[in-house]
Structure formats: C-alpha cells, structure tokens
Amino acid sequence: MRGRWHQITLSLRLVVVTTTLLMVGLALAGATIMGVLQTHLTRQVDESLQTSAARLAVSSARSLLQNLEPALPSDYYVRVHLVDGDDRELISEVTKQVAGTPRPGKILRDSEVPQGSMTRPVSVKSTKAGVHWRAVAVPIYQGEERIGVVTVALPLIGVSRTISNVTWYLLFSSASLMFLGAIAAYYLVRRELRPLRAIEQVAGRIAEGDLTQRVALEPRQTEIGSLGWSLNKMLSQIEQSFADRAKSEQKMQRFVSDASHELRTPLATLRGYGELYRMGAVPPERVPEVMGRIESEATRMTDLVNDLLKLARLDESRPMNFEQTDLTELCRLAALDMEALDRTRTVTVISLDGDHEVPPIFAVVDRNLIAQVLTNLSGNITRYTPQGTPVEFAIGTGTDCVVIEVRDHGPGIAPEEWERVFERFYRSDTSRARATGGSGLGLAIVNAIVNAHGGTAHMDHTEDGGLTVRLTLPKVAPAANCD
User: Fold this and answer.
1) pLDDT at 282
2) Considering 28, 346, 443, 482, which has the largest number of Cβ atoms within 10 A of its Cβ?
3) Distance (Å, rounded) from C-alpha 23 to C-alpha 11?
4) How far is CA 469 from the centre of its chain?
5) How far is CA 336 from CA 288, 313, 330, 387, 403, in A?
6) Contact 317, 452 (CB under 8 A)
7) CA distances from 371 to 17, 308, 326, 333, 334 (A)
C-alpha cells in the first residue's frame, strides 16, 4: 500500500489527504451535533415526565383504589403495582401500536427514594423493536405506609424520529460538502502547484541543452520560492561550469594549435640543417654557421617550452609563495638589469607623481613572479624599441593597491591592439614579427601572474609618446580586486 501510495501524483495525494481530513472533521462535527441534540431532546422528555409523573401517579392510584377508570394522556404509560399484589397497566391503544409497551422491570428498590420523591428518569426497552421509553417510579403512600409503586413512562419515538431525520440531513449535507470540497481541493492544489509544473518545464528545456533557462522566483520565504532560488543558483553554477569548460577547451585547442605552429618552425629548421649536413651539402667552412643556427633554434624552442610550462603552472593555480615584498626595490633591480642590457638607455625609477625620491612600498606578493613580470616587460622594451629610448619605472599606491607603470618612449602600438597583446602567441604586425625572436608569450605570462595576484594589467599611452604598461597589485590580500 505504501508503494502504491507513493506512485500517485503529489496533487492527487494532497486532494485525498484534504478530503479525508474534511470527512473526519464532518464526521466528528456530526457526531457532536447528534450527541448534543439527543441529550437536549431527552432532557425535554425528562422534564415533561418529571413534571407530570407525581400527579399521574397519585391520580391513577386513587382511581384504581376507588375502582374508577383513570384519565390518562395519550402518550403516557402508567403501571400501578400495589403491595398486596394488584398490578395494572394503563396505555392508549394508539400509543401501544406505535411505541409498544415499556419493560421497566423493578426500577425502584425498597427505601431507595424518600417519601414524596421519585426516581431519576431512565431509558428502558420496549416490546417493539427499536423503540425506547423514559420512565420514572413514584412510591405511593397511605399515611406513613407505602402501599405501592407507580411507574410512569414516555416513549422516545419522537426523539428517535428527529435524530433519524437530522442524521439523514447531516449525511446528505456532509456528502455534498465532501464532493464540493474535493473539487475545490483539486482546483486549488493544482493552482498552488503550478510553480512546480513550471519548474518541471524548465528542467525539460534544460535537459534539451538550454542552460540559460531559469525558474520564475516566488517569495523566498515560501517553500517553492526557496526551492526556485536554490535551483537557479545551482543552474547558474552549472551554466558557468559548462561555459568555463567550453572556454577552457577552446583555449586549449587554440593553445595547442598555436604551440604546434610555433614549434613547427624551429623543428623544420633543425630538420633541414640536419638533412643538409647528412647529405654533405654543408661545406666545412659553413659548419660553424650551421651549428650556430641549430643552437639558436634549439634555444628558441627551449625558451618557448619554458614559457608554455610557466603558463601551464599558472593555469593550474598552484600555490604561490606570498611574502611582504618591497616593490620599489624590485623596480630598481629591473632598471639596473635593463641598463646592463643596453648602456645607451636612460632607465629611472620615479613615483607616479614624477618624484625621483621613491620610498619603499610594500605589498604581499610572490617576489620571484613579480620579478619575472618586470623582467618580461624590460625584455619587450629592449626588443621592440630603438636603442637609447628612455624608460621609467613609476610606482605609487592606490586604494588598497600598489600601482606600477613601466613607460617607454618607443613607437608604441595601436589602441585597438592594447587588449589583444596579452593574448597568448599574439604579435603586433608592426613590432612583434617573428624575426625579433619573440614567441608572443611574454605579455601573456605577465597578465597571468598579475591576475593570479588578484590584480590587473592594461596598456596606455605614454605622455610624450610611447607605450605604458600599468600594473595594479593588492597591497594586503592577494584576493583583493584592484582597479
């Protein structure tokens, strides 16, 4: 039964439960009404019986003692039992046909009732099936001597008929109310469960592949509203997960394609020089030149692989060694390295306001990774700007952030390329040709490292011409967002 019950739809179960509760409520209310009504009608009969019993008992006994026919109301039953054994019953024929004759038995015991009193009304059976009487016994006295007992009774047939009629009325009205209640419950339950059907429809569309579907929200304090809010949150996370996976797959496909394209050139060069050497097409005087070319291409391929490994580690979000670091010192070290690479350049470390006296500025960063960021930027400037071009490392603080600007005064790049230069393997047509030796991964590594610190990197114009790379890094928590 439990298994069958749980196979029924929720709406039908709610209707059955509601109708059952309504039926139980009506049954209890009907039983209460019937009990109260029966008690009330019986009390009315008892009051009438108690009012007339003493008078009927005395008049009936006197008439019998005088051998007279006593006058008796049509509904009453009177039985006179004298001590000397005389026993007479008085009842009209009409009442006898309708209600039969009561069988009270001995309802009065010796000395049970004081003189001038009567017994409490009791229900007794009748000679006619299904009929009951209410009866009292009144002792009769002659002087101080009790000479007998008079039993007076009234039939409860009127009460029974009233109870029967009211019962049928209650049954009919209860059945009507149950039927109407079941219809109303079915309508209201289906109406209230409409949001669940909407959720089912949304789930069906999601199953077809449309992850943008969302559930219409009800008030969150309601059960359906709380369910809808939770489902929407779950769907948003699922959609984001699928989007991230698709983006990751797309990035991986592009990455593999670009990497294979970049590796193809040095590998083809190595293979070509190897075949030339194997075929004897390289004269002895050119062997050093060929070996140099092979070494340079191998070095280029090694650098490319190292850059790819660095990006792969950053993509995996491996733990970094965060520590309190003086970024001003890192900028001075990068400036010294750049001056060592190109003695013709003027490299200075200044504040964002142009002050040459720059105090130590600390932030919680991975020292080695930030040093690599500055090294990559220095290498790009050395590779893509003319010799002697001045360079500034400007450093300052923002709101909870440290700002580093690496400014050059070279030819720069077009504004539409500012965002794309941080993409992997992207080269500007004018200044990032493969002939310069770049792999197109330097700025991608810079962007990945800065993002891993919770910061941002973007391009801007240098005031007197050239290109500025602006880095923002959180000062305290690596997870802080810097703008």
Assistant:
1) 76
2) 443
3) 18
4) 46
5) 34, 28, 10, 16, 20
6) yes
7) 72, 18, 11, 9, 8
Residue 65 structure tokens: 């003692």
- The pLDDT score that the predictor gives to residue 110 is 44
Residue 317 confidence (pLDDT): 67
- Give the start-end residues of each E strand in 212-293: none
Tokens standing for residue 451: 């993002």
Q: Which parts of the chain sit beneath pLDDT 50?
A: 109-111, 430-437, 480-481
**According to the model, what pLDDT value does residue 144 have?**
73
Residues 6+ apart with CB under 8 A from 105: 124
Lookup result for tokens 């209707």: 15
C-alpha 471/C-alpha 457 separation (Å) is 5
User: Which residue has 């002939």 as its token pair?
Assistant: 435
Contact 422, 448 (CB under 8 A): no
* Strand ordering across the sheet containing 401-408: 347-351, 391-397, 401-408, 467-474, 456-461
pLDDT computed for residue 63 by the predictor: 65
pTM > 0.85: yes or no: no
Q: Which helix (H) or strand (E) holds 188?
A: helix 157-192
* Tens-place pLDDT, residues 14-66: 888 889 999 999 999 999 999 999 999 999 988 888 888 877 777 766 665 55
Burial (CB count <10 Å: 0-12, 13-18, 19+), residue 133: buried
Total count of residues recorded for the chain: 483
Contact (Cβ atoms closer than 8 angstroms) between residue 170 and residue 29:
no
End-to-end CA, the chain:
65
The rounded distance, in Å, linking the Cα atoms of 455 and 396 is 15
Q: How far apart are CA 303 and CA 482, in angstroms?
A: 31
Q: What is the DSSP string of 37-93?
A: HHHHHHHHHHHHHHHHHHHHHHHHHHHHHTT------TT-EEEEEETTS-EEEEE-H
| 72-130 pLDDT tens trace | 567 888 888 777 767 778 888 888 888 888 887 655 544 455 656 778 888 888 888 88
Amino acid making up residue 288: P
